């Protein structure tokens, strides 16, 4: 679960502002202080046309009298509330919508990362790179989600003869599709550019490993109950927001040179806030079958169902407190959902390890000279 959550967090944080914690009274150069990269080591990647201020004009006009720092604060606040409201709406629409959103994020992430490689690759006028990249994406998705369909939609597969054939020979078909792409890559090799082409081949496969694998695991997690999707996503969002707020109002001490606007105050404040938030959210969601039951397929209605007898982890239990706590609080026992205990570890992981996903994104942006921007998936 922690591995799934970490992978999910990495992609989630990649699309958020990598330098999220503003600090009072501290001016820094965010374009490479102490990164030690020489110009020779940095690929000359043209900036995207999206590297502009895409803030809604009405919002810019309403905040035009504010200092840049406070203007940025209110823009982040308004857009964050809008995105959180959209997230609630998606949850309300059910598991199918959540799956489609995960797939959309996967495709968009893949497109963004591949585009960076394509800008370098295209300058040499070498064939098929982008075509093969998308072909491999289709192959890997077919392999992963074909397995998922066979596992979770067994009744539907057994009912349709073509699906039975695809399920029976699924792995062979997947392997054959990959081999076809492999052969196309070999045929596309151009003399004097072999090394670059193999770089791009590896670039595509690493991107597939990071993006497609994690999205598949997220969807697998979702089928075990929407709570296993909602809680990890929510605590990452909470940590990012609270770290920014604590850093904005109380930040003084720099955390890491790679991301100069991050502060220890934001890091610590985000940690405690996220643990409390995760504990409360786990308590609220554990009470509803809609969130805790595995997502199943009903062959009679041809639809998804979320009805079950909740497992023990979502049943209230009584715990005896340690003697020290009993003497301090005068309580001997406490009633909790076991999942609330899980939430403490999940929140701690998101708060302590999660920011390193942001640091990774900061280094990635500096390596390829990518400016922060507003895109389809939110603030980057």
Automatic annotation (TrEMBL):
It comes from the Eukaryota. It is an enzyme of class 2 (transferase). It is a multi-pass membrane protein. It is found in: Membrane. Residues 26-53 are annotated as: Disordered. It catalyses: a 1,2-diacyl-sn-glycero-3-phosphate + CTP + H(+) = a CDP-1,2-diacyl-sn-glycerol + diphosphate. This is Phosphatidate cytidylyltransferase.
């Amino acid at each position: 679960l922690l591995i799934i959550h970490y992978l999910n967090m990495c992609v989630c944080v990649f699309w958020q502002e990598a330098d999220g914690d503003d600090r009072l009274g501290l001016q820094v150069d965010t374009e490479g202080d102490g990164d030690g990269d020489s110009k020779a080591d940095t690929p000359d990647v043209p900036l995207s046309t999206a590297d502009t201020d895409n803030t809604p004009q009405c919002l810019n006009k309403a905040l035009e009298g504010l200092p840049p720092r406070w203007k940025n604060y209110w823009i982040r606040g308004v857009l964050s509330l809008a995105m959180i409201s959209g997230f609630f709406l998606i949850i309300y629409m059910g598991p199918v919508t959540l799956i489609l959103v995960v797939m959309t994020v996967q495709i968009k992430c893949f497109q963004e990362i591949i585009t960076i490689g394509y800008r370098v690759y295209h300058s040499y006028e070498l064939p098929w790179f982008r075509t093969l990249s998308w072909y491999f994406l289709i192959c890997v998705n077919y392999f992963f989600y074909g397995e998922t369909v066979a596992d979770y939609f067994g009744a539907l597969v057994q009912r349709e003869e073509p699906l039975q054939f695809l399920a029976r020979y699924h792995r062979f078909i997947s392997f054959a599709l990959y081999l076809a792409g492999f052969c196309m890559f070999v045929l596309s090799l151009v003399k004097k550019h072999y090394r670059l082409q193999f770089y791009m081949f590896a670039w595509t496969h690493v991107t597939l490993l990071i993006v497609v694998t994690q999205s598949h695991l997220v969807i697998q997690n979702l089928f075990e109950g929407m709570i296993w999707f909602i809680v990890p996503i929510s605590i990452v969002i909470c940590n990012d927001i609270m770290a920014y707020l604590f850093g904005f109002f109380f930040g003084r001490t720099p955390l890491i040179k790679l991301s100069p606007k991050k502060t220890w105050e934001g890091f610590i404040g985000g940690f405690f806030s996220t643990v409390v938030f995760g504990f409360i959210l786990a308590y609220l969601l554990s009470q509803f079958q809609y969130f805790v039951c595995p997502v199943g397929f009903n062959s009679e209605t041809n639809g998804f169902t979320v009805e079950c007898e909740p497992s023990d982890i979502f049943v209230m239990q009584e715990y005896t407190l340690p003697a020290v706590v009993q003497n301090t609080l005068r309580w001997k026992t406490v009633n909790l959902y076991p999942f609330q205990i899980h939430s403490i570890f999940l929140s701690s992981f998101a708060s302590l390890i999660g920011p390193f996903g942001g640091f990774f994104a900061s280094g990635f942006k500096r390596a390829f000279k990518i400016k922060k921007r507003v895109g389809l998936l939110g603030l980057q």
